[in-house]
Amino acid sequence: MSSSDIAVQARGVSKSYRIQHETKATTLGESISNKLKNPLARQTSETFWALKEVDFDIRKGEVVGIIGRNGAGKSTLLKVLSRITAPTTGEIVIRGRVGSLLEVGTGFHPELTGRENIFLNGAILGMTQREVQRQFDQIVEFSGVEQFLDTPVKRFSSGMYVRLAFAVAAHLEPEVMIVDEVLAVGDSEFQKKCLGKMQDVAKSGRTILFVSHNMQTISQLCTHCFLLQSGSMTFSGPTDEAIARYIETQKQSVVDVDPDLRPGSGEYRITEVNVERTVVQSGDPIRARYTVEHRRGHTPFLHTNFHLCDEVNTIVLHGDSRIKQFGVKPRDKQEIELEFSGVNLKPGTYRLDLMVHYNGYVDVLEGAANIDVSPVLPERLATSDFGYQFGQVIAEMNWREIDPPGSA
Amino acid sequence: MDSKQETITVIRPITRWEVLNIRQIFAFKDLLKAFGLRDIKLRYRQTALGVAWVLLQPIIAAGVMSFVFNRVAGLKAPGNLPYFLFCFAGMLGWNVFNSTLTKAAGSLILNTALVSKVYFPKALVPLSSMFASLVDLAVATGFFLLLLPFYGVGLTWQILLTPVWVFFLLLASLGIGLYSSALMVSYRDVQYILPVVTNLLYFATPIAFSLEAVPSSLRWFVSINPLTGLLEGMRWSLLGTGTLEVGSTIYSMIAAVLVFVAGSLLFGRSERRFADVI
Fold this sequence. Notes:
- The complex is a heterodimer of chains A (408) and B (278).
- Mean pLDDT of chain A is 82; it is low at 377-385.
- Chain A has 2 domains: 3-248, Rossmann fold (3-Layer(aba) Sandwich); 263-387, Coagulation Factor XIII, Chain A, domain 1 (Distorted Sandwich), CATH 2.70.50.60.
- Chain A has 408 residues and is an alpha/beta fold.
- Chain A has helices spanning 28-37, 74-81, 114-124, 129-143, 158-170, 188-203, 215-221, 239-256, 378-383; strands spanning 6-20, 45-59, 63-68, 89-95, 98-101, 176-179, 207-211, 224-229, 232-238, 268-275, 279-281, 286-294, 303-309, 315-320, 333-340, 348-357, 361-374.
- In chain A, strand 16 (348-357) and strand 17 form a beta hairpin.
- Chain B has one domain.
- Chain B has 278 residues and is mainly α.
- Strand 4 (89-95) of chain A pairs antiparallel with strand 1 of chain B.
């Protein structure tokens, strides 16, 4: 394969972040006073490698999926490839115009009209005015917001907003396209439309790098996949195989912690956990399967419970099988399915802890899985802090004024 | 962009010799326009008086300054010009400098999402802040020209040179603006320091007073300030009075260019770190 067939070539790409402890200065004054207090002390900092020595070649026209667990380095890789952040070591050569889409609607301004935002957003994504002009009608048609083109987007519903934002981005025409998980927006009908658009783009012979947690989307779109694990690329190959390995890594997370070192009396241990979807939208049911295996001794019966904890370790949800009079039969190996639904979690990452107990804990598996709750409509709500600032859960909310009795 | 030749992008780690990528700035020139248009459109949306603010702001400032310096301190404008007109002409030049600088300095931290989620030459954000200032200047200058016959002051050919002064004033303000905006990414203190500095600069520059009104023993101090030459020049163009000091004019122009070059270089040096720090 000649070098001109290669669209993206990466050699030894690493990216490190310095995590400073405590004494991080965010103002000049702090920085100076820290220096004065401890002139010799070097700031305690830790180097975190978000990407480690990543090498790959992507041929022109290939549609490559990048998969891996949260924090595996997928987004960092995309940011480095799109030149938003610089690599710490290594070199990347990209042949062809690069367009990247890491978030839908970045740079949309609420006060500007739909029409004005199309031009502004197009320019931000790297299109020339002429290119936007040429595609304007298609963008508007795709978004389906024709009637509101001259309305400021702050008056748009969140659905319309996301549709318009995606429509602009979908009409980028770079030779190399870098796309983060942006298809998880809008209603399911619009998601289908977006996926269709992506498939068209893929067929048109452009090179695409695509990150998603949704394995179904990955397998529909991608011919080739990279699997990232804690910053390193552990697999590069056909999509089916990559997905199979990815699912394997999800299960392995349990085995990472030696079951016999975990808390609990240890007669039985949870040995395998498989969460159906680790990225869900608020309100979606969550399903996990896990296996309880016999180790030693005997208990007459077992119960099981779970905790769902947020990033600061608050237990957001607790569930015990006793309330459903469900007991686990003490067998050599018993697979259990847990499903819970009807809870509207605030967007964020949650840790699922699974427990087995009988007169006290038999096994405590902290961090059986991480579940990402993605906002249903990320852009609009995620950018305004007040939306999610407080509280543990979200709900459908309405306010209205009650007229005082006797008023007209 | 239209050429058939393939664009090749090479991404390497940050070195000590990062420079502003001027070719990329040209490739994204439409974005510069788009940012400028956005600022102009947004400026007076949802304000009751709208465009009137463009005029009110320099009128009030010039009015207050002519009261203080003319009535209270008893200064006279050179060539027996009405003091208000004299101050107003000074404000036109100062406002271009000051408003561009203030907006440019805060522009990156006002656009955090753009800096951390999209690739484009980041210098476009502070650079684009000049457009709104230029529109303000155009409107205020129009008003100024209407005032001239009212005060019985005539136009001279020198007014044609006004763009020259504006150009150098912009270079100076964008130079400081680029550097301040980059510094603000790491240190938000800059947003508190900057108004203090511009306030001092305001009184160290002959805006509401003429250079001749400064005691000759202190005149060297005011003349070190490169803005002095540019503002004196601006007033020479607009009012057609006084003489242009060639030496101080050339000094001011060279200084403005150097400030711009230095600001751009310093910006370019830190640009690739922005997304990690902001």
